[in-house]
Write a structure and sequence with these properties.
- There is one protein chain.
- This protein is α/β, with parallel strands linked by helices and 408 residues long.
- It has 14 helices and nine strands.
- It has a seven-stranded mixed β-sheet with strand order 1-9-2-3-8-7-6. Strands 4-5 form a two-stranded antiparallel ribbon.
- The longest helix has 22 residues.
- It is elongated, with a radius of gyration of 48 Å.
Length: 408
């Protein structure tokens, strides 16, 4: 395997990062992007956000609140809940809670873009008809600034339509009727109706609530959406009874949401199984780094020569023969005999007896090897010659054969 030098490899990595940074700077989208986004968050001042709708409501006297918690504020009849086509759908339980508050006297301003539990509960169905948003031909509008949003809206603005069949058969009031829509009948983009003691306003397309559309003077969408909001915020009388608008920002991604990263980090840091997996992963990374390619080949390991067991035996035999250690040899031979006969003749109390007592015990049990036993006992007591030591080894072999043959 060819190994790239460290300096060339570092230079290649730095050059790659520089190219990636250059592409990110050149092709990063600007704040005023002409690509419409369905995220109608009131935090966004971009052309496709909904900050203009919130600021318009504030200037007209409403009090605005951004709800970034999973739970709604305490139920009050002077609240209008604004659900502006969130990318995270409301669950069936959340839809039930918000509609219960509307039936008790609150208001609901909802922008729909697809079939959701909220649309099904309200009896609103989005239709396939697309129509043109009406324009105010008599309005005197100042020249708009040359922004990308203004350029994108130089032509006609189109919107989807809806069909409202509220539960209870309440009367539906249309606020935005689209023009140049194919098919018979009227194409409606925004409507309002009563629900229990509260009121509901629904909008069929999130595009007509964006900052780019609301700041376009020639379009009637802005004035008619504010009229729909006023309808939802007022009661049966002409006086305004719902003075606070609660914008749902939690389902636009704001606030604290369940996070896979946070849960995984907590599991690895706190749980015993998680800590074990973390240690194993760290050990795997270290092992992978150790087995990876290195900038320099590893130094060869030095071979160490060791003596074999037979060489040890020869060395001991030579040492014993030079110092005439016949008693030591005889004692080692008897010790090997006792170890081999542990579960036969030397069982029980014989394990704790001396070698001489062990040999006397064998002489009582096996009279046929009495002469061999006496030869071994004599070698344990005093030194013997070479020939006698060889005879001691033969006597040990004879004793072992006799004892093992008696136990069969």
């Amino acid at each position: 395997m060819r190994i790239i030098p460290r300096d060339r490899r570092t230079a290649a990595i730095v050059a790659g990062l520089a190219v990636m940074l250059l592409f990110a700077i050149l092709f990063a989208p600007g704040e005023e992007s002409a690509d419409p986004s369905p995220r109608l968050t009131t935090h966004s001042r971009s052309p496709w956000g909904a900050r203009g709708f919130l600021e318009t409501a504030e200037r007209l006297g409403w009090r605005t609140v951004r709800n970034e918690q999973v739970d709604l504020p305490p139920p009050r009849t002077d609240h209008v809940y604004a659900v502006l086509a969130p990318p995270i759908q409301l669950t069936a339980a959340e839809t039930h809670r918000i509609l219960e508050r509307v039936r008790a006297g609150a208001g609901l301003f909802a922008v729909l873009e697809r079939r959701t539990p909220l649309a099904d509960s309200l009896g609103v169905r989005l239709r396939g008809r697309i129509g043109r948003v009406p324009e105010d031909t008599g309005a005197r509008c100042a020249p708009s600034r040359r922004s990308r949003a203004a350029q994108a809206l130089r032509g006609a603005v189109f919107s989807a339509s809806l069909e409202a069949n509220p539960p209870g058969g309440e009367q539906v009031r249309n606020f935005i009727e689209l023009t140049a829509a194919p098919g018979p009948g009227t194409a409606v983009a925004a409507a309002g109706f009563a629900l229990g003691r509260g009121r509901v306003g629904v909008v069929a397309d999130p595009d007509i609530l964006t900052n780019a559309v609301l700041r376009t003077c020639r379009l009637e969408a802005g004035a008619r959406l504010i009229a729909l909001l006023g309808y939802v915020a007022t009661g049966d009388s002409a006086a305004r009874t719902r003075s606070t608008i609660v914008f749902d920002e939690y389902h636009h991604g704001y606030g604290t949401h369940p996070s896979v990263t946070r849960v995984t980090t907590r599991f690895v840091a706190s749980h015993p199984v998680g800590r074990t997996l973390g240690h194993l992963s760290l050990a795997g990374v270290v092992l992978l780094a150790a087995a990876a390619a290195r900038p320099a080949p590893p130094a060869p390991a030095r071979a160490r020569s060791r003596r074999s067991p037979l060489e040890h035996v020869n060395a001991l035999a030579l040492a014993y023969s030079r110092i005439q250690a016949t008693r030591t040899v005889a004692r080692l031979l008897v010790r090997g005999l006792r170890r081999r006969l542990r579960y036969t003749a030397s069982a029980g109390p014989l394990r704790t007896q001396s070698d001489d007592e062990f040999l006397q015990h064998l002489a009582k049990r096996f009279p046929a090897v009495t002469q061999d036993l006496e030869r071994v006992r004599g070698a344990l007591r005093s030194p013997v010659g070479r020939n006698e030591l060889v005879a001691v080894g033969r006597s040990i072999a004879t004793i072992e054969r006799t004892v093992t043959g008696d136990q069969r």
